[in-house]
Design goal:
With 298 residues, this protein is an alpha+beta fold. The protein contains eleven helices and twelve strands. It folds into two domains: 79 residues; 215 residues, Beta Polymerase, domain 2 (2-Layer Sandwich), CATH 3.30.460. The strands form four sheets. It has a four-stranded mixed sheet with strand order 4-5-7-6. The chain has a three-stranded antiparallel sheet with strand order 1-3-2. The protein has a three-stranded mixed sheet with strand order 10-12-11, sandwiched between helices. Helix 5 packs antiparallel against helix 7, helix 7 crosses helix 9 and helix 7 crosses helix 10. The protein starts with a helix and ends with a strand.
Length: 298
């Protein structure tokens, strides 16, 4: 005699086919509890048996991302594009840095690392009442060392990419948007990612997550005509950094040939410290106009 799961399989498949393509474990629990009666599953059928049946007999597929800090697991119904699957598995996540640069069409490169971010929860990040610049000696010390890069990453050999999961300061979703992105596949992908203005700030702050300062400079060039410099400056102030990143951003804007009125927005802000375009540059040149150390020959 066929089991109740086998008998109910057509109804189960129909329900999953009409639902989301990416599911977290909690989604399966909810579906199982809400539908088991309508599917007339045996009372002795457990969630574990239900999931094993679906994985073995339907298009449901398990996915596990073994990040060092915390493993992430879930399911897809059939083949799901990687970028949509990652967003579905990691709650409230969004694409940032070099991945966002590609989403905005600002690079011709195909980055081998996918940068996926999620904000800390409210209350986990100390609130800054006002921006306070770090002392010069602290800035010098920090930028003479290599940057602290996240080790929370996993290699996806079948996809040929590395996924880096970054935890960012809670900013109430500032500059995070959603939209359809067409990478030339069968259909556009529905993604969450940083806006153009937030992306440019993020890569100026952490160029090592965007291919380095030359790639950042190229992105600023390619963003001309699309980037709202006023909106970017307002967003930078809301982020309340302790480092004078406005000096680096102003330098990038000037180097890329933006209008003088846009460059002056950053030139008018106080320049109370010498700053660095990135970490551990080795031989540098000093730009006195922006009080900025940049790589020699840059």
């Amino acid at each position: 005699m066929p089991s109740r799961l086998q008998i109910a399989k057509p109804d189960i498949v129909k329900a999953f086919s009409q639902g989301p393509a990416v599911l977290r474990p909690s989604d399966l629990v909810k579906i199982f509890n809400e539908e088991r009666a309508s599917w007339r599953l045996a009372q002795r059928t457990t969630l574990h048996e239900f999931v094993d049946f679906l994985v073995g007999k339907t298009e449901l597929r398990r996915i596990t991302l073994a990040f060092p800090q915390q493993s992430v697991s879930g399911y897809t119904w059939g083949e799901a594009p990687l970028l949509e699957a990652l967003l579905g598995l990691v709650k409230d996540s969004y694409y940032s840095h070099y991945t966002a640069v590609r989403i905005h069409g600002l690079t011709e490169q195909l980055p081998k690392t996918v940068y996926l971010s999620h904000e800390k929860r409210r209350g986990e990040t100390p609130h800054k009442e006002a921006q306070t610049l770090y002392p010069q000696e602290k800035i010098d010390e920090a930028f003479q060392r290599p940057p602290r890069m996240s080790s929370n990453q996993v290699e996806l050999e079948e996809e040929g990419v590395r996924v880096m999961l970054l935890e960012t300061t809670y900013q109430e979703g500032l500059g995070i948007s959603a939209g359809e992105v067409n990478f030339g596949g069968d259909r556009p992908l529905r993604l969450r990612y940083t806006s153009l203005e937030r992306t440019m700030i993020d890569i100026a702050v952490r160029p090592f997550y965007a291919g380095g300062v030359f790639e950042v400079a190229k992105a600023f060039e390619n963003a001309k005509g699309q980037l709202s410099v006023n909106a970017m400056r307002a967003m930078l102030k809301k982020l309340r950094f302790g480092y004078p990143y406005h000096q680096a951003i102003g330098f990038y804007l000037e180097r890329a040939g933006y209008r003088s009125s846009h460059v002056d927005l950053f030139m008018r802000d106080p320049m109370e410290r010498d700053f660095y375009l990135t970490h551990a540059m080795g031989r540098t040149a000093y730009n006195s106009r922006w009080r900025l150390h940049v790589p020699e020959g840059f």
